[in-house]
Amino acid sequence: MASTAPNSLLSTHKSSDSSLNIHLHPLILLTISDYITRHTLRRYQTPIVGALLGQQNGRDITLEHAFECDLIQNNDQIQLHETWFKDRLQQYKDVHLAPALELMGWFTTTAVTGPEGIHVPIHQQILQQNETAVLLAFHPSSVLEGAAVGGKLPLTIYESVYESGEAGDRSMEIDGQDSPLDLRFRELPYSVETGEAEMISVDFVARSGGNATAVDGTVKKNEKAQASQAPVGQVDEKGKATAKETKAAEDSSILSAEDEELVASLTARANAVKMLHIRIRLLKSYLNSLPLSYLTTPAPPISDADSTSAPHTDTSTSTPEINHPLLRSILAILSCLPLLLPPAHLSNFHQETLAEKSDVELISLLGSLGRSVKDAREMGRKFGVVENVKSQGKKGYINMGALGEDMWDGEGKDVGSITLTRGEDGWVYE
Amino acid sequence: MAANMDQIQQKALNALEPYILLSKSANSPRAAADLVTQATSAPNTFVFAELLQTPNIQSLQTTSEEHARYLTLLQIFAWGTWSDYTSNPNLPKLSETQQTKLRQLSLLTLCTNPSNLTYVHLLEALDLPTPRALEDLVISSIYAGLLTAKLDILSQRVDVSSVASLRDLKPGSIPTMVSTLEDWDSRCVSVLADLEEHAREVRRKAQEQRRRETEHEKAVAKAMGEGEGKGRGNWGREGVGSRRRGMKWM
Fold it and tell me: Where are the annotated segments for Disordered (chain A) (predicted)?
């Protein structure tokens, strides 16, 4: 298990079915990236290690929280600080009692190849507390290379298995003793899940990113601002964006609050569609770049002779590496496309969209109706005042009285002309 | 690449693997034909492209008519449908399990065209005697993870929501896939253009509004200034001012 061959720790067995199901919560990703950012900015040299908390129900593991850990150097091995770790873990368990969280694993940063020898001692420590501990390996190199834009998260989750040593070790077996069990890591597939409370915070992060993009758009005209219309509103751009906002204060106030929200949501949708578009183009270029020989497999007697390219002379001898699973997955995606909007339900769909649309239009119409009534009332009031001024102005009477609500009596009579007469107690309108 | 395969394909491939290994030693046509039968009767195998590509199976094509049928059969299992099987009289007889498997796989292919999914059409395409048999078949496919669907008995349809990636590609199907992708691509582009148009519209309207407001304010200020200039401004201004106070003098 020397770290010369970095992936000697990876299991050579193929992952069997019905292995653990892992559900990853986005809060963990936020915690990890926050920790890494702070760690890097403060230029700490210690390795980045933290613990993962979650729940386990049989084969389902959820990873919900994470916290960073203190490390000690124990003659060349990096290990967790036991007492500190125990205290911290207990604190977290005390806080999260309602769904009782337990230590599920730990995270650290590794290269893409996988865990290395230095990670094993800590893993052993964690294994003492939980036998099915998982290791979440975060790959900062993938983030730097920009692979994250492709949509795949830069992390891999490993579970550890004890496997009997490789063939080389068997020669050293002594009768009566088991072959030494080596610790191996096996990659696990995971899915991202989220609970309601988390959705709120993730939404907030995403939306404030969206607003940053909206501000960028309006600032476009400002020459000082170097508004980069980034397709994905990153949160770290928000700092820059707020600076631009102060510079171009007048431009950004063009949009009212509702308009900004509208533009932000439109932008979010546009971003999603852009991502989809990029993926589709990727698939298309992959299919186009496939070598021709698959298009005309040796002419089968029953299937359609739909081959468009010229018939190949060499048939079965030179079949290049065709990635069947990938092609099958692509085929499955494309077959699902027409299923999205089944024709039987098309009329229902149209009706419902129409109904919603008319609802929205109706409400906006009501809103504008209310606004115009308010405006008309204001207008009438001002007009009345001005009329008064005109008729009384020459006499020097400045004070007007009884403005406002009395102008309109209950039946909504039109206030055409108002005469102001001096009554017993004051000014009376008629 | 193993990490990219989804679970379902992984399971099917794992089930197929022993047969791929066996095929390396199946040198005679008889053995290869037997292998085909075994592979298609096995419970979890749904994809056969890798098996088809092995040289021993491919060599079946050049051997006698008797054994070449098995290659055809394997091809039907890989990408053909039940109707392909019934329209070809030469193919070997299928056992019960094989028949069910072939029907399930054909169902997967038929799902790609939603207008095919009425009971009537499916009964005909799959040669099933009663709707009950069809429902059983659909239910068994759902449990096998081949598709997720709902049976709409009132309108006699099967509402499929997703299809597993368990059929192989027909030869020559790549151009159609590319054209489907291109359609999708152009739809994306038009949707994007629409969205951007909307956003521009919103901004434009807001700017328009802003412009009108500033003009209005300017006009008001100008009118007030004129009023001042004509000397009646004191009252005019006061009048304007007291309007805001809204005092009641009753």
Answer: 221-252
Q: Give pLDDT, residue A373.
A: 97
Please state, in angstroms and as integers, the Cα–Cα distance from residue A276 to each residue in A88, A156, A266, following that order.
42, 23, 15
B235/chain A closest Cα distance in angstroms: 6
Nearest C-alpha in B relative to A327: B169
Kindly state the tokens that stand for A157.
């989750």
Instruction: Look up residue B42 and give its two tokens.
Output: 């096995």
Residue A53: its H or E element: strand A49-57
Q: Are B75 and A303 within 8 A, CB to CB?
A: yes
Radius of gyration of chain B (CA): 35
| pLDDT tens column, A81-115 | 888 888 988 888 888 888 888 888 888 888 777 77
* 3-state class percentages of chain B: helix first, strand second, coil last, to nearest 5: 70, 5, 20
Round to whole Å and give the CA distance between A385 and A399. 10
**Interchain contact, A331 vs B72, CB within 8 Å:** no
pLDDT reported for residue A360: 94
Strand order, beta sheet including A102-109: A181-188, A155-164, A134-138, A102-109, A49-57, A60-68, A21-24, A190-192
Q: Which amino acid is at A30?
A: L
Segment A188-217 shows an average pLDDT of 67
B237 touches chain A (CB under 8 A): no
**What length does chain A have?**
430
Share of chain B above pLDDT 90, in %: 8
Interval A39-50 mean pLDDT: 85
- Bridge partner residues of B149 (DSSP): B160
CB B100 within 8 A of CB B81: no
Rounded to an integer, what distance in angstroms lies between the CA atom of residue A69 and that of residue A81?
A: 8
Run of H or E including A67: strand A60-68
pLDDT at A357: 94
Determine, for residues A189 and B7 on separate chains, whether the beta-carbon distance falls below 8 Å: yes
Residue A353 is predicted with a pLDDT of: 92
Residue type for position B40: T
3-state secondary structure of A102: strand
- If one counts every other C-beta atom within 10 angstroms of the C-beta of residue A63, the result is 27
Task: Give the pairing of strands A155-164 and A134-138.
Answer: antiparallel
Nearest-CA distance A70 → chain B (Å) = 32
Chain B residues with beta carbon closer than 8 angstroms to that of A336: 162-163
Rounded Cα gap, residues A15 and A17, in angstroms: 7
Which pTM does this prediction carry? 0.57
Q: Band of the pLDDT at A5, cuts 50, 70, 90?
A: very low
- Is the per-residue pLDDT at A290 higher than 70? yes
pLDDT per residue as tens digits for the range B145-190 = 888 888 888 878 888 888 887 777 777 778 888 888 899 899 999 9
Q: Do residues B47 and B16 touch, judged by C-beta distance below 8 A?
A: yes
CA A23 to chain centre: 15
The number of C-alpha atoms within 13 Å of A120 and in the hemisphere containing its C-beta is 18
A301 band by pLDDT with thresholds 50, 70 and 90: very low
Q: What are phi and psi of A92, to 5 degrees?
A: -65, -40
* Reported ipTM: 0.74
Which residues, in sequence order, are CB contacts of B113 under 8 Å at separation 6+? A338
